[in-house]
Fold this protein.
Amino acid sequence: MMTRRFREIGGQRNASRIGSLVAIAGAVLVIWGMTLGSTAKGAAFSCEDRVLVNHNRALEAMPDNRLPGGAGLPFGPSNLELRPGPSIMVEGEPVIYTLGLRGQLEEDGRTARPAGLGWTITMRLDSVDRVGRPKGMSGRRRWIVRRLSDHERQFKLSTDEPGLYRVLVTIEKHGRTRARYRQFLQVLPRKEKLSIRIQGDSPYRLGTVVTARVENWGTVEADAPTGTGLSAERFENGSWKAVEASGSPSVMFEDPEFLPRGRASGCSYFPIPVNSVPGEFRFSTVVQSESGNPRRIFERFAVS
């Protein structure tokens, strides 16, 4: 009797466990289905909106920058200017400030009127939190600039790790601070991610127009070389063969199509020929990132 009772209790527990597993599996399938659904909806995009990632968002929460104005420095030669570098960069790229002289150059590239300065320029880089509060010094350099003979001179400070930073630039003369500037920066991890995105959901019907574009989801800039564009191909007899559009061809870049980080190209429109054979198609194009050789990327779609 006791053995039978334990068997009944064990069977009830197993049934309960199986029911729980089925419920969990069902929930997983629902979540998976929701994910697939959201992915399908993600194929919708606006050709007018070419922003994929707003890398400036983190900097918008920072205090205001204090940078030299475009009219020049408030002291020194009137044709002298200090130009800050970009606020967003990729790891390994230096923070750059450029001291330059406006005016005519000699044949050897030197300025016609060298500037005697006698300045001490200091650059300090601090890591900061998300509201701009310093967490610790990441780097510091100091230069003595007695005379500026070349048209310009650059001052660089390396950035080794991704994150948020503040750079302080101080100009001193005879031990007295003449100017102090501040700039908040974001250093991004180096990532290359170029892809083709197609509007809507596959499969597409014969005669419809398929919209697609090239998207740069990476952090390095890229471009599509001159004379390239989205090409359509169909898989036939074990190989890919070009498909001619029934209307106007896809976008052809007369000049290199520049693809900034977090941005998309203009849209291409491909009318599927009504006399084409349904099957597997793909778009392809040649792209080149700033740190690599040209390469071809692909995106498949079906035609029914």
